[in-house]
Specification:
- Four copies of one chain form a homotetramer.
- Chain A has two domains: 39 residues, no CATH class; 112 residues, Hotdog Thioesterase (Thiol Ester Dehydrase, Chain A, Roll).
- Chain A is built from four helices and six strands; from the N terminus they run αααββαββββ.
- A six-stranded antiparallel sheet of chain A has the order 1-2-4-5-6-3, with helices on one face.
- Chain A starts with a helix and ends in an 8-residue tail after the last strand.
- β3 of chain C pairs antiparallel with β3 of chain D.
- Chains A, B, C, D: Keywords: Hydrolase.
Chain lengths: 166, 166, 166, 166
């Protein structure tokens, strides 16, 4: 099995151009980082997400390259959704007491400009904290400052040791 | 540069367990497939998406593993959004005349059950075809048949050689 | 006080044309019906909503006239939202055990064609019934059969004698 | 015909309590105001909406009473949608050049607290102005300052003398 993979890797590297090499590097680094920091999901590592959080806002930055792009060479709507969901989810979980979790129950996204440039940056803030749900707002920007998406999300609050499989 | 990557690869493989090996295999196969079929975005290949389309419905299937999962070990909401957006976008583009493209302008998703099992399958169908937009419906199911997400999307119709950068 | 109102009524009737007379009739009949059937909200009576429900679908029909129209003389988006919310809410409540209530927590609507003609008809069906929420689908049609809106809604399930003010 | 209506009016007034009298007064004043100011739709007058607009925000205030309430005696979700859509639509239209109109193509609302008190106030601001659409944000508050709803909307820009029936 490991031999098959070594063969796949050699094929991958063989005709790799500069962009390809960068992509392979990001994927392998992401994989290795996920072994060291398994609290964050693998997809966060593969997309090389960097997070920063302050009291009221969370931020997720991810580099734009062929891993994030759709076939029009702009950031894939699903990737934009992924970084927005991640930014909102991180803040939602941070706002809850120890042991409680927040899981997305609804997400609505308006795509307003093409995602191009070096990286995208998602930010999230709280709209409403209720007893059962949190409503969050998410925004995604390019590095030239232009907003590419605006959205909102509802997160369910799951108590500690809740019977439910979340 | 290539040496750095070879080193990263060796580290990745060194302590890899069975699940890790499967993940590395899927990522490398995905990368290689994207070189052969560059019409589809890399993320589709990395997620090992398989598509089928008939006259009125498109389907996207993707295996569930640590590439798709969040830190609760259920499918990440952003990945669910990615497969739903892909299924809706494929059908939207297929419904347009040659040269026209459809780009997502709005997506709304209700997450209704945890994504677990072997794979998820997204399907999309048309709600409305207008002169400027298409409204699509997307559903995502587990392999036990349970629906995990339901959503709708608006797609802008971009004419051929449109001045706009989509 | 009642004299002021009588004066307002006389002014209303004085220069009323045929459409005006129909509107005044619908408003007054709606008001009177709300005194007889106070389980339904006044706005349902003012809009002369008729409901039918079967096991899996609920329907709300409302006549189109200047009460429903916006300044472009097509059905106001808020009225379309009102009939869709009503149709979804009626079915949601019917699907719950005695004493439980369903209250709207999220509604998303795509407006796809202008609301014109004699009446609009909203229908609702269930997408998902969970332990805390119901996800519903709503559609609104003209009497020529054309769909004017498509939407989804999340409804919270409120247990009997719940402490919360819903 | 007018005699029938006079009879309906007399019946309405006969057993009217103080709240009923206020409702009838608001409906009749709304009807009469719509004859004087026919640019705004009748429903705005019936709900006694007051609007204020400044450069970047529009506001709609409407009194809470049995016209706005649902059967739980809190503001009906459809009425909340109506005031939010109105606030967003007014600002959208104001932001466009003479002759252009904005029509709602999508609206998404999170209901976060029950609408109670004397009145609700909706505000709207611009998220994004594109060449074909505007994306707006709407918020609805009670008079004690608590937010009851948060939403977003997409509005299509309709050029002057556009062939389409909007």
């Amino acid at each position: 099995m490991k031999e098959t993979i070594r063969e796949l890797f050699n094929q991958s590297l063989e005709n790799a151009d500069t962009e390809d090499v960068k992509v392979l590097e990001q994927l392998l680094k992401g994989f290795l980082n996920s072994k060291k920091n398994s609290e964050r999901p693998l997809i966060s590592h593969l997309l090389n997400m960097e997070k920063t959080v302050d009291a009221e806002t969370s931020y997720i930055t991810t580099p734009i390259n062929s891993i994030t792009d759709n076939s029009f060479r702009i950031v894939h709507g699903g990737i934009t959704a992924t970084v927005m969901d991640t930014a909102m989810g991180i803040l939602a979980n941070q706002l809850l007491p120890e042991g409680y979790s927040a899981v997305t129950s609804n997400m609505n996204i308006h795509y307003i400009a093409p995602g191009i440039g070096e990286k995208v940056k998602a930010s999230a803030k709280l709209i409403h904290k209720g007893s059962n749900t949190l409503v969050m707002e998410g925004s995604v920007f390019r590095d030239d400052g232009k907003q590419i998406a605006h959205g909102t999300g509802t997160f369910f609050i799951v108590p500690p040791n809740d019977g439910r499989k979340i």
